[in-house]
Task: inverse folding
């Protein structure tokens, strides 16, 4: 069976085929010609508005995503254009080997939406492909955009480098915390501060909410002054409390970005995506297949003092 | 005046000329043919044992460096080989525009050693050269090694990415903290944990020492189990308390590395240095001079949806 062409699949996806859409995302998760052909197709199309949700496992991201889907479909007040007609959710778990049809445990909480024809939910995982997700996720966002989705939620687990990479794909990045977070996950703060456009303190009916809010405020006070200071929203996602407030803040941020900031941000993101692809391509050229042998030879030579890093790099890059 | 050749300068440096040594380091701080010629020369020579000291400004790194110089020259118990006959100190301040002869404020504390013919102290700074220090510092370490220094102290300010890059040049990285650090610089913890081989709580005569120790222990408990768990040493560098303990721990770590770990670490470092040079060379090729215009054109095309990142990357890399 020859694989269906990305053009055919995109046409089917635009007419509502979830199978075709899933297949296109599988194409961008793989590396190869089908990936390249899919990218060539979707980068020319419309991009969805992307809200990223990140935070530690158990923070309540999936429940919050569930609520945001409902809110977006019911009264998407963004730009006063009424509700969104559809929502795509991409769930990214860099630590999981499962992808595609294999729903992660948390995904079951979104089952209420899973049968809604306006909602598309997809898990993405690394498949052991180093750096693969950093490339595949922005591409998958473009795929759902090209298939006609106006709004996408990008849910990632954790706040490591991979999650920060993935967060940079979002227009608005929401960092989801819980009360008491200040004590528990200090080590993760540095990365969090940089990527957050909005902080959510979820499970805000628990003790420690105001301490966590103070902690976040203090952290922001220590950082640089920026034109957008991330608001802090308190939610109890399990019963929907605060979700309207979150939606208002997301709309505010979207309006903020639509100003002068927007073009600069789009350019920065394009440059970032380009840089990542450049690194990946070079990594492949230098380190995979025959390149891997040549790379190891140069490292040997370096360790033995027979070359220096500049000569070795020139040899690898320009004497292929 | 034609610049002196790296060969001539190295010969002079090996016979004790500090001016020649300083000139060679200036060569590796610059980018160009003299840098390449110097690298070709020094990577074939002996490397010194490198202890890196990193930590926030004011933590007492310079005073500690001062004490370590004295200890190394008096009774360098490493490998039971007696004292080191000389010590080179490279002070790296990524935030400072000053380099070379311009001694940073803190450097004056080391003045007692500045006139000692066995000691060479040099400040290095970025000179506005993005990524320049990550390349220049490992090269400068090789320069002092080639000039006959057996032991080098690499002192860096702060714990940002640049400092982490620089720390990876050290054989043993010492992270210097102060009591109460737990509250003040939480945001920096993530990076610290990864680079530390040894923790020093300096100014340990102040309140909060045991809390800081507990905080570090807990942080390590949360991290992965590794064959070397970073010891925590308490010092009062201003009067020399704890410096002997630190020296013992440094010797322990050196012996630890001399085992099976050593070869693997050398290869990892060689690969890391090679990767950095590869990135820098490509960065130059893609983003500087004529490349910058072509890069901007591709970003324009991406933002306008006229290309995708894969096509853009191929154009930049392989159609030069």
Result:
């Amino acid at each position: 069976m020859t694989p269906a062409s990305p053009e055919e699949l995109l046409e089917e996806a635009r007419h509502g085929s979830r199978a075709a859409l899933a297949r296109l995302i599988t194409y961008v998760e793989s590396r190869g010609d089908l990936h390249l052909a899919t990218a060539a197709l979707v980068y020319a199309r419309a991009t969805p508005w992307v809200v990223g949700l990140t935070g530690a496992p158990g923070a309540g991201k999936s429940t919050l995503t569930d609520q945001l889907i409902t809110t977006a479909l019911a009264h998407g007040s963004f730009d006063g254009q009424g509700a969104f007609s559809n929502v795509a959710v991409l769930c990214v778990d860099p630590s999981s080997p499962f992808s595609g049809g294999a729903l992660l445990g948390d995904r079951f909480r979104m089952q209420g939406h899973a049968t809604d024809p306006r909602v598309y939910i997809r898990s993405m995982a690394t498949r052991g492909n180093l750096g693969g997700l950093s490339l595949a996720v922005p591409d998958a966002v473009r795929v759902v955009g090209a298939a006609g989705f106006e709004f996408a939620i990008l849910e990632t687990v954790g706040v490591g480098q991979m999650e920060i990479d993935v967060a940079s794909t979002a227009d608005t990045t929401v960092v989801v915390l819980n009360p008491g977070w200040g004590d528990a996950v200090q080590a993760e703060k540095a990365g969090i501060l940089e990527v957050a456009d909005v902080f959510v303190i979820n499970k805000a009916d628990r003790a420690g909410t105001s301490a966590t809010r103070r902690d976040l405020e203090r952290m922001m006070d220590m950082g640089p002054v920026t034109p957008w200071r991330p608001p802090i929203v308190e939610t109890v996602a399990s019963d929907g409390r605060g979700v309207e407030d979150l939606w208002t803040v997301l709309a505010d941020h979207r309006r903020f970005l639509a100003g002068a900031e927007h073009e600069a941000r789009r350019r920065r993101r394009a440059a970032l995506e380009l840089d990542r692809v450049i690194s990946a391509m070079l990594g492949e050229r230098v380190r995979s297949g025959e390149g891997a042998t040549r790379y190891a030879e140069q490292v040997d030579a370096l360790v033995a003092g027979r070359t220096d890093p500049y000569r070795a790099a020139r040899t690898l890059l320009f004497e292929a």
User: Anything to note?
Assistant: DSSP finds 14 helices and seven strands in chain B. Chain B touches chain A through 49 residues (CB under 8 Å). The mean pLDDT of chain B is 82.
